[in-house]
């Protein structure tokens, strides 16, 4: 498989190592200082581009890749609110392909499935309030994390007493999310169901490094080469 990398920071370099170890070829590496390479023959030859950049550049990167008929795997967050409808339309009606996930960790895919199932169970026990806390490195640009939002949506879909999420917001019907930024933490997500007079249930996903995210992104690229449309971790792992 021929892979183009969009974003060549820590994640991009780790993805490169894992992709090569799995027998794939990196044909193009695009970062802030060589944007002209989107027009290169090497980029156009890619079977898929793996994109990890910023909330402000991701959508434009999708458009540049789609213009060259290159499929995209992206782990960038923060762009969905403004551009989600456009991307969905391009994938459903325009024949483009994007595999997007807020978190590519295999462990997080399992955690997400457990989160939804737990919320469905807890829907029957209204004495428990649910909150979430996410901790990341100090360089992270968005809050709450895209992963926290995805997890929150999984709770809201299955828990009638929560209609929306709110950052540091405590109100009826609101799932409170607190964010912490410290050191070089790859990512910790904790969901707590608390009944003050009874007990507390807590589930946590704690990433040890970015390696799990990078491996998941390469697995997603391998899947994307054989599929089309708007894809997600739910397609890759049928839990």
Can you describe what's shown?
It contains 8 helices and 11 strands. Helix 1 (10-21) packs across helix 7 and helix 5 runs parallel beside helix 6. It has a 6-stranded parallel sheet with strand order 2-1-3-4-5-11, with helices on both faces. The protein is an alpha/beta fold and 239 residues long. The mean pLDDT is 95. It has helices at 10-21, 41-44, 58-67, 80-92, 106-122, 146-158, 211-224, 233-236, and strands at 2-6, 25-30, 48-51, 71-74, 98-100, 129-136, 164-167, 174-181, 188-195, 199-206, 230-231. Strand 3 (48-51), helix 3 and strand 4 (71-74) form a beta-alpha-beta unit. 36% of the residues lie in helices and 25% in strands. The relative contact order is 0.17. It is elongated, with a radius of gyration of 19 Å. The longest helix is centred in the middle third of the chain and has 17 residues, at 106-122.
- Helix residue percentage: 25-40%
Distance between the termini: 27 Å
Largest sheet: 6 strands, parallel
Q: What average pLDDT do the residues reach?
A: 95
Tally of helical runs: 8
Q: Going across the major beta sheet, what is the strand order?
A: 2-1-3-4-5-11
Number of strands: 11
Q: Write down the overall geometry.
A: elongated
Q: What is the rounded Rg?
A: 19 Å
Strand content is 25-35%
- The residue ranges in which pLDDT falls below 50 over 5 or more consecutive positions are none
Helix/strand order, N-terminal first: EHEHEHEHEHEHEEEEHEH
Q: Which structural class do you get from the secondary structure elements?
A: alpha/beta
């Amino acid at each position: 498989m021929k892979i183009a990398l969009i974003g060549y920071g820590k994640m991009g370099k780790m993805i490169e190592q894992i992709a090569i170890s799995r027998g794939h070829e990196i044909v193009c590496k695009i970062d802030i200082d060589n944007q002209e390479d989107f027009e290169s023959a090497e980029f156009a030859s890619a079977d898929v581009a793996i994109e990890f950049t910023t909330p402000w550049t991701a959508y434009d990167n999708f458009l540049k890749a789609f213009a060259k008929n290159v499929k995209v795997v992206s782990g960038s967050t923060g762009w969905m609110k403004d551009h989600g409808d456009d991307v969905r339309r391009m994938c459903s009606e325009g024949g483009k392909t994007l595999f997007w996930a807020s978190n590519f960790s295999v462990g997080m895919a399992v955690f997400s499935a457990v989160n939804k199932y737990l919320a469905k169970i807890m829907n029957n026990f209204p004495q428990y309030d649910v909150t979430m806390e996410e901790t990341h490195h100090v360089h992270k640009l968005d809050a709450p994390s895209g992963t926290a939002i995805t997890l929150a949506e999984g709770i809201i879909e299955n828990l009638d007493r929560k209609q929306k999420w709110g950052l540091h917001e405590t109100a009826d019907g609101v799932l409170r999310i607190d964010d912490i930024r410290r050191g070089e933490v790859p990512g910790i997500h904790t969901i707590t169901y608390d009944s003050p007079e009874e007990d507390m249930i807590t589930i946590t996903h704690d990433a040890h490094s970015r390696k799990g995210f990078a491996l998941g992104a390469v697995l997603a690229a391998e899947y994307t080469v054989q599929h089309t449309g708007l894809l997600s971790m739910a397609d890759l792992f049928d839990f």
